[in-house]
Amino acid sequence: MTDFDVLRVFCGPRGGYGNELGVVREGSVMPDRAERQEFAAKLGFGETVFVDDPERGVIDIYTPSLRLPFAGNACVGAAWLLDVPELVTPAGVVGARLDGEFSWIEALPEWAPPRTFRQYASAAEVDDLRVPPPGERSEMGVPPDEVWGRIYAWAWEDEAAGRVRARAFPGRDDGVDEDEATGAAALQLTAHLGRALNITQGTGSQLLTAPQPHGWVEVGGRVFLER
Fold this sequence. Notes:
This protein is of the alpha+beta class. The protein has helices at residues 33-43, 72-82, 123-127, 144-148, 183-193, and strands at 5-11, 19-24, 47-53, 58-62, 67-68, 86-88, 93-99, 102-107, 116-119, 151-158, 163-169, 197-201, 205-211, 217-225.
């Protein structure tokens, strides 16, 4: 089997939680897109990155069911692993830097698919959300996954401090009902609110963000090599 690393991205302060990310450092061993898609499906991680040029930071990103032009989780993890000043993705060039325990990227929010931001009155309401069965994922006559698959549920834990509680429901057909940490959604929420955020997502993942000039947004998190 092709060699690959497993990272956990956007870990909590004590190193737990985060999203698992597969990284194939030698992308040249699997140049065909269909083969890459099949391999990503076999691994089953939320995202798998193929590194096509480690020195220039050229990467190719796949979920178990589709190829992505950009993904925050994948880019933060790849930036940490490759330790390069930028990443080259199909969406564009992503700035990258390491700062103490955090790996940061800078990207444009529009590179990611649009999401429905649903604000709740309290963090407890977000905690209590359940993932509905497919037959219940409808809203106002819109096809079920077309709505549910875009939801990023959030609430202020401490508005003055920019602390947010969030959960994300991708609604994909690859078995991922809820994302533990979603860098692209964090970018978009930051752009929407126009301020830096400290987001706790899923069961305990942490994402930090900060708006930058000209519409760019930084997102950062802790990354650990699992194997």
